[in-house]
Write a structure and sequence with these properties.
The chain has one domain. The chain starts with a helix and ends in a 28-residue tail after the last helix. It is built from seven helices and no strands. Keywords: Coiled coil, Signal.
Length: 222
């Protein structure tokens, strides 16, 4: 019973590694979408691509202008679509639709979380950890969750500072796990976090419901 309880306490910590990027994005204040870290990363990738292809500065500027026009056109289309939907639906229907969407999202999230937990259960059981090692994992989980709660309550000047603070917590948690798990176990943990269909070798049973893990799981943050 103690082993089962400890394992269940560990699961939210491992899941937190996977879902934290979404939490950070959701907590960031709305603003210029072009300043979003994802868009900045895409911009860097485009520039690297231009550099490799030998695209001159004038052509790059024209391409960037085309990208900007495309984003603006998409924004206008979204606004027109929202206005059209509001014209079609009454206020009561609109609220009912939003409520149904929230329920479906919560159901899918619960299913994905359950599927991930089952994969993690199988992986951790396959390691054959002793009680001291499981307790150490639990303690690492408690420390990380405490730091995450403290971070959530802090105010930051910008999303970059918040992300930097999260990355520091993540790195500290990785270091704590590295003192408990072997390099092979850490690699298996990262693999199962970044792939919705990844299974520990020797465990071929399909996760409950066969649902995908959340699309927002960052491959490099596990």
């Amino acid at each position: 019973m103690i082993r089962l309880t400890t394992r269940k306490l560990l699961m939210p910590a491992l899941l937190a590694i996977a879902i934290a990027p979404l939490s950070l994005a959701a907590s960031a204040a709305p603003g210029d979408e072009s300043r979003h870290p994802w868009n900045e990363r895409h911009q860097e990738q485009r520039q690297a691509l231009y550099e490799r292809a030998g695209i001159d500065e004038a052509t790059r500027a024209a391409l960037e202008e085309a990208h900007a026009e495309h984003r603006e056109a998409q924004r206008e289309l979204r606004e027109q679509h929202h206005e059209r939907v509001n014209d079609i639906l009454g206020e009561e229907q609109h609220e009912a639709l939003k409520a149904a969407m929230r329920e479906m999202h919560e159901e899918r999230h619960a299913e994905r979380r359950q599927a991930m937990q089952e994969r993690l259960d199988a992986l951790i059981d396959s390691w054959g950890l002793d009680e001291a090692e499981r307790q150490a994992l639990h303690d690492a989980r408690e420390a990380m969750m405490a730091d995450a709660r403290e971070l959530r309550d802090q105010e930051f000047d910008n999303r970059e500072d918040r992300r930097a603070a999260w990355l520091e917590i993540r790195d500290e948690h990785r270091a704590a796990l590295a003192e408990i798990l072997t390099d092979e176990q850490l690699a298996e943990l990262r693999e199962i976090m970044k792939s919705p269909h990844a299974h520990h070798k020797g465990h071929h049973q399909e996760p409950h419901g066969g649902h995908h893990a959340p699309e927002h799981q960052a491959n490099d943050d596990a």
